[in-house]
């Protein structure tokens, strides 16, 4: 048997009774205030907005289809023009080919001369770098040998200063 049908539920000191009364009063206040009408109005407004968006989408689709048809026609025209331009370009290309051969031979001669100059410059730079590297290696070897000899003997401040300056003087 449900609890609210018993006599205890209808007792004024029962908190469940007051929760039920408050809930009923809340729904009555909502109904009197017109909340269902407001909700229905909001839903109707939302439906109208969605319908207008659908109408706008249909209009845009029709415009897009018309634009697509126009673009296809323009594409066909452009293809015809491109074929004519291609024929003209082939004729121009034949003329330009003869000119390009002459310019290419001239440019190749200039590039060969420039490459020969760069090679000579690179050889000179490489020789200078090899000399510098050899001087660094010799300075390091001399410093190592002198340091080994000095380690066997007492430390001499003049000898230490001379060893530190070897690297800078050989470069």
Give a brief rundown of this model.
This protein has 171 residues and is an all-alpha fold. Helix content is 88%, strand content 0%.
Fold and architecture overview:
- There is one protein chain.
- The protein is an all-alpha fold and 171 residues long.
- It has three helices and no strands.
- The termini are far apart.
- The mean pLDDT is 85.
Give the DSSP E fraction (strand runs of 2 or more residues).
under 5%
Counted beta strands: 0
Question: How helical, in percent, are the residues?
Answer: over 70%
Mean pLDDT: 85
Overall outline: flat
Counting helices, strands and paired strands, the structural category is mainly alpha
Query: Poorly predicted ranges (pLDDT <50, ≥5 residues)?
Result: none
Name the helix and strand elements from N-terminus to C-terminus, one letter apiece: HHH
Distance between the amino and carboxyl termini: 110 Å
SS field, number of helical segments: 3
| Estimated radius of gyration | 50 Å
Largest sheet: none
